[in-house]
Each structure stands twice: as structure tokens, then as C-alpha cells.
């Protein structure tokens, strides 16, 4: 497909989406949101892709939403456009999505990064939710995901008092998985994604689903979800191959079925 606000690339079994509105620090407008999710869904449906990365550039992952699109909108216009609802498409992606973040990840940029499954951050990465400074609050999951990831007090400070987290703080508080040098952050993310793409595809999908259930259910319901994902894997060729390879002390040859 031809896109106007993003770039796509495939490196071996990793699909990469690069946000490409540098003149606006990669702020999300309606077109970029649509193209981003279209690209991710296309990679999700491609059997040759094992994991995905979303990135920006060294200066900015994404510096929020395009305020010019929303400045004079009424509540009914915002609802009619379904702008916030577009973000729900990330929840339908079955494969692992990694955010490779360098520079600013603010507002919608931060919200998108934390909606991904994992984050590789460059040393220059900064995460924040500055919506309070323009008279609104995060609307694409920021209040809820930050509270679950960081706890109530730090989430409150970020949302209400515009606190920004450095890359080191993001790692310290569990928001980021790795912090790496700026000049190699995307390569580090690709290497990380390739490790995931080399694992049993069906097991990875089931594992992602089970971990996500922990954020949305009670422990009892979460344990039920885990069992629902655990037992069916014993009907797969990959389970037989994986355990046979373990016994035979060799690398497994995954088939994704």
C-alpha cells in the first residue's frame, strides 16, 4: 500500500512502521492514525511477520495529537469523528508490537507507546501527558494505562502536574524494557523483535493474550484466561516440535501451526 504519513519496512521477520510527519514532530492526525493501524493490521495478517515495531525519529517518537484538528471541535464532532475510538484498533493486534522510542513521546505519542506490548527507549526518550496544559486530559488510554503501569501517585503527577519521565526513569518505574544509546536504538529494537519473532508464533500470541488479561480481570478470571490459552497449545504441531527438540537437545523448527 502507498502511505502519506508513515513508512513501512520489513527486516527479515520484523515489520517496521515509521511515523513520518517530521514537520509536526510526528503528531498524530486522522490520516496518520488510520494509516498506522492499517499497516499494523496488514503486518498482523502476514504469516512471514513474527513481530512489529513502531518508531519515529531520533528527535520525536510522536509529540501528541494534531491540536489544529481538534482546537475548535465540539463534543459531538469529536464523538462523530470517532477519533478516540480509532485507538482501540491496537487491542485487536495479535502479534507483539514494540515501540522504539527516541526523543519526545508526549500526549497521544506516550499513549500509543504504552499501548504497545513493550518499549525500547533511547537515552533521549521523554514520556509525558501534557494535555492538562491545554485544558483537557488524556483520552486515548493514558489515565488508565499509566495508573496500571506506574501506580496511582506517579500517574496522577504525570496527568495532573505535567511530569515528564526520562528514559532512565521509564526503565526504573517499569515503563520501558530497555534503554539504549540514541544512535542504535532502532537496531536494538529490531534485534529484540527478532528474538520474539524466532519463538513459537502461536505460543507468543497466547502468551500476549494471557498477560493482557491480567490488566483487565480479577486474579481468578485471569487464571482462567491463562488456562484457556495454555491447554489448546497441546493440540499444535509447535508444541510437539518444541518439546521433542528440548528432549533431543536441538533448536526447534517452528511451523506456526
Topology:
Layout: E1 6-11, E2 14-19, H1 30-45, E3 51-55, E4 60-63, H2 67-70, H3 75-81, E5 97-101, E6 104-106, H4 108-115, E7 118-122, E8 126-128, H5 142-150, H6 152-161, E9 165-166, H7 167-172, E10 178-180, H8 185-197, H9 201-213, H10 219-230, H11 237-247
Parallel strand pairs: 2-3, 3-5, 4-6, 5-7, 6-8, 7-10
Antiparallel strand pairs: 1-2, 8-9
The main sheet orders its strands as 1-2-3-5-7-10
Poorly predicted tracts of residues: none
Count of individual beta strands: 10
CATH architecture of the largest domain: Alpha-Beta Complex
Categorize the overall geometry. globular
CATH fold assignment of the largest domain: 2-enoyl-CoA Hydratase, Chain A, domain 1
Mean pLDDT: 92
Description:
This protein has 257 residues and is α/β, with parallel strands linked by helices. It folds into 2 domains: 6-197, 2-enoyl-CoA Hydratase, Chain A, domain 1; 201-247, Orthogonal Bundle (Lyase 2-enoyl-coa Hydratase, Chain  A, domain 2). 42% of the residues lie in helices and 16% in strands. It has 11 helices and 10 strands. It has a 6-stranded mixed β-sheet, sandwiched between helices. The longest helix has 16 residues, at 30-45. It is globular, with a radius of gyration of 19 Å. The mean pLDDT is 92.
Amino acid at each position: 500500500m502507498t502511505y502519506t504519513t508513515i513508512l513501512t519496512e520489513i527486516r527479515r521477520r520484523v515489520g517496521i512502521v515509521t511515523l513520518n510527519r517530521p514537520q509536526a514532530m510526528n503528531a498524530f492526525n486522522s490520516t496518520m492514525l488510520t494509516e498506522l493501524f492499517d499497516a499494523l493490521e496488514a503486518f498482523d495478517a502476514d504469516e512471514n511477520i513474527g513481530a512489529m515495531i513502531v518508531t519515529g525519529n531520533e528527535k520525536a517518537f510522536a509529540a501528541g495529537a494534531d491540536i489544529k484538528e481538534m482546537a475548535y471541535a465540539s463534543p459531538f464532532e469529536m464523538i462523530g469523528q470517532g477519533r478516540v475510538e480509532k485507538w482501540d484498533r491496537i487491542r485487536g493486534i495479535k502479534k507483539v508490537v514494540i515501540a522504539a522510542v527516541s526523543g519526545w513521546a508526549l500526549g497521544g505519542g506516550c499513549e500509543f507507546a504504552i499501548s504497545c506490548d513493550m518499549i525500547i527507549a533511547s537515552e533521549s526518550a521523554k514520556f509525558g501527558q501534557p494535555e492538562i496544559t491545554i485544558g483537557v486530559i488524556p483520552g486515548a488510554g493514558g489515565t488508565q494505562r499509566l495508573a496500571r503501569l506506574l501506580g496511582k501517585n506517579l500517574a496522577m503527577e504525570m496527568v495532573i502536574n505535567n511530569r515528564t519521565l526520562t528514559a532512565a526513569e521509564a526503565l526504573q518505574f517499569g515503563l520501558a524494557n530497555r534503554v539504549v544509546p540514541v544512535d542504535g536504538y532502532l537496531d536494538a529494537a529490531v534485534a529484540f523483535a527478532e528474538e520474539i519473532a524466532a519463538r513459537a508464533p502461536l505460543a507468543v500470541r497466547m502468551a500476549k493474550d494471557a498477560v493482557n488479561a491480567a490488566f483487565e480481570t480479577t486474579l481468578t478470571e485471569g487464571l482462567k484466561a491463562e488456562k484457556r490459552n495454555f491447554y489448546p497449545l497441546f493440540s499444535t504441531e509447535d508444541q510437539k516440535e518444541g518439546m521433542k527438540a528440548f528432549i533431543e537437545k536441538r533448536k526447534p523448527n517452528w511451523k506456526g501451526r
